Amino acid sequence: MFGQLLSSLADGLLLGFVYGLAAMGLSLIWGVMTVINLAHGPVIALGMFTAYLLFTQAGVNPYLALLPVAVLGMALGLVIYGAAVHRVLNAPHLSTLLATFAVNMIIIGVGTAVFTTSPHNIDFSLGSFSLGPLTVPFTRVVAAFAALAATALLYLFLYFTRPGKAIRAVANNRMAAELMGISSTTMLALSFGLGTLLACLAGGLIATFFPFTILSGGPYELKSFVICVLGGLGNPLGALLGGLLLGGLEGLVPAFMPVSWVPVVEFGLFVLVLLLRPQGLLGAK
Amino acid sequence: MRPWARLGFWLPLGAVFVWGLVVLLLREDTLRETTFTLMMFVGMASSLNILLGYTGYVSFGHIVFFGLGGYFGFYLLSQQGLWLLPAAVGGGILSGVLAGLLGLAVLRLRGAYFALATIGINEAARAFVSNFGPFGGATGLFVNFQAYQAYGGAGPALWTTFMYLWLVTLAVLLVSALVQGSRFGLGLMAIREDEDAAMVMGVAAPRAKTIAFMLSAFFPGIIGTLYFFKNGNVEPGDAFQLHMSIEALVMIMLGGQGTVVGPALGAVVYQGLRGYLLTSPLFKSLHLAMAGLFLLLIVLFVPAGAVGWLRHRFPRLRKVLT
User: Fold this and answer.
1) Which of B102, B126, B193, B299 to mutate to test the interface with A (most CBs of A within 10 A)?
2) Which of A169, A243, A264, B73 would bridge with A19, disulfide CB 3.0–4.6 Å?
3) Cβ of B25: how many Cβ atoms within 10 Å?
4) C-alpha span between A181 and A171 (Å, rounded)
5) Measured between CB atoms, which of B106, B126, B303 is closest to A91?
């Protein structure tokens, strides 16, 4: 019993890092421009498929493929921002929600036509190691470290580089940042691109251990909402902790009740946190 | 001027009245089925409009009330042997009460936080029902075929269901028009424009929002029961489809939020468009992408929707299109 609990908890925590990475993109976009990106899930799925195509068609190592995946993620974000988000940025929330949802429909529609909805998977394994009652596949460990590295890079970028500081300035006060000579449009587009880049990276990592379809991004998008609220909406670094929290929860809950109750607990907690502490457990920004 | 003294008040009601009457007189089964789907969406979009269009709160959880109310009504009908009409009203009342309780808590959140909370409620409700024993868990509930005998066989039962749906759709439109023209509705619109200012001007915002939420949740519960009765079964995957909530949002955007005619018109046009895209050989595999592109263009370039655009462009029409 205890061994089982320990292994499911370790499993959940390792996955939590990747959940956190996926949520970080959503949180960054919210933090900078108060837009909820409903196209987040399909973008994650596109990350999965890019890694898949590079692996099966060109034989690229899935971890090496993360680099082109990231580049594509950034490009995708810039296109989505320019085409769908920029024009409605100052309109009521319904407009940005529906605009990003329209992008969601377009990606899923085209993706379904191209890839169908039958599952794909990357046939890749690094073996696993055992530690007492634990058996952990190495792909999970590498994914957790990659997520940590991406978070560290994001932190360094946001706090120690000029464009990073400019993004934070725009998030803080767009008007004041403009008066200081920062082009807010460039920074908004850049941060949207960074958000989708993180989502694509998370997708590329998830693809190394789970099979996926074009619709697979959906559950991660929903989890990202929960994580963002746990970690504080608009606090990208809090997202990693939120991800660990959710991953740990997913590891613990099945020990006490049937697995099918996990979403009830997750989303119940989500609504509760929103009500009692809307700034998140860790505080916003 | 009283709202019912205007021509625009009667236009959507009259149109739906004649529409349903014609279908009832023609008595064709395929026509009834298509009209059933269309009217269901007219009812869903118009009821959501009370919250979204008038009050300005974006809810992704409208389908929860359809699902939970429908489940409860269906439970009353199939397990407790209640007659269809009281069962449907029971489903509606459950949805309304639930919305009241949820609203007390959730309506304190504003803007995107409220929208996120409704997504959470939708997922939690779906997961809860899949695990809840009396509602049949993941397999759902069935209606015994014998039950249809009480309505004179399966065929007449479907016609009865259709007639009820027609009446409910009329009721939704009536309530929507009455709310729009009333002092209560003006309060809601003040909340939509600026909630703090509205409160300063004496609008009891928390109470008004909760009543609007309950009104908009009551009808989906009834419609849900009727829909599941028509299908003969109910299961969680069928009852809580997040995309149906979003489709209702799209319909409202298409027709024009905050108007009575808009959501109804949007529902009919959206369903027609979807039907065309699904059956045309050229767009069949890309219908979702085409619908998405269409939605994007509306959001970007005609944010007031068809009716809103017409009202803006031709001021004379404002008397007719409310």
Assistant:
1) B299
2) A243
3) 8
4) 15
5) B303
**To probe the interface with B, which of A103, A104, A230, A267 has the most B CB atoms within 10 Å?**
A267
pLDDT digits (tens, 9 = 90+) for A22-31: 999 999 998 8
CA distance B121 to chain A (A): 7
Smallest CA-to-CA distance from B223 within B172, B156, B180, B258 is with B172
Q: Please give the backbone phi and psi of residue B141, each rounded to the nearest 5 degrees, phi first.
A: -120, 155
Task: Report yes or no: A157 and A187 within 8 Å, Cβ to Cβ.
Answer: no
Do A236 and A154 touch, CB atoms closer than 8 A? Answer: yes
- Given CA atoms A36, A42, A48, A50 in this order, what sign does their dihedral have? negative
**Inter-chain CB pairs, A–B, below 8 Å:** 128
Would an 8 Å CB–CB cutoff place A124 in contact with chain B? no
A84, A225, A264 member nearest B128 (Cβ) = A264
pTM of the model: 0.85
Do A239 and B99 contact (CB within 8 A), yes or no?
A: no
pLDDT digits (tens, 9 = 90+) for A99-155: 998 999 899 989 988 888 888 888 877 777 877 777 788 888 889 999 999 999 999
Residue at token pair 């099966």: A56
- Rounded to whole angstroms, how far apart are CA atoms A193 and A190? 5
Chain A residues with beta carbon closer than 8 angstroms to that of B291: 105, 109
Closest CA in chain B for residue A89: B300
Q: CA gyration radius for chain A?
A: 19
CA angle A270, B121, B37 (to 5 degrees): 155
Q: Cα separation of A238 and A236, whole Å?
A: 5
Residue A225 touches chain B, beta carbons under 8 Å: yes
| Other beta carbons within 10 Å of A144 | 22
**Residues of A in Cβ contact (< 8 Å) with B56:** 92
CA angle, A79 as apex, A76 and A85 as ends, to 5°? 115
Is the Cβ pair B121, A271 closer than 8 Å?
Answer: yes
ipTM for the complex?
0.85
Nearest by Cα to B288 from A213, A47, A113, A95: A113
CA distance B321 to B206: 30
The residue of chain B nearest to residue A35, with distances taken between CA atoms, is: B112
Q: Give CA–CA dist B315/A120, Å, rounded.
A: 55
- Sequence letter at residue A112: T
Q: What is the dihedral of CA A93, A94, A97, A99, to 10 degrees?
A: -110
**pLDDT tens sequence across B46-78:** 999 999 889 988 888 899 999 999 989 988 988
Q: By the 8 A CB rule, do A42 and A195 touch?
A: no
Distance CA A146, CA A207 (A): 13
CATH architecture entry for A2-118+135-276: Orthogonal Bundle (1.10)
CA B305 vs CA B180, B253, B262, B272, B318: distances in Å: 17, 5, 8, 17, 14
pLDDT number for residue A282: 66
Chain A partners within 8 Å of B246 (Cβ): 101
Identify the pLDDT of residue A283.
60
The encoded tokens of residue A213 equal 């379809």
**In whole angstroms, what is the distance from residue B125 CA to residue B118 CA?**
10
Length of chain A: 285
Report the residue of chain B nearest A87, measured CA to CA.
B300
> Which residues of chain B make contact with A98, given a CB cutoff of 8 A?
249-250, 253, 295, 299
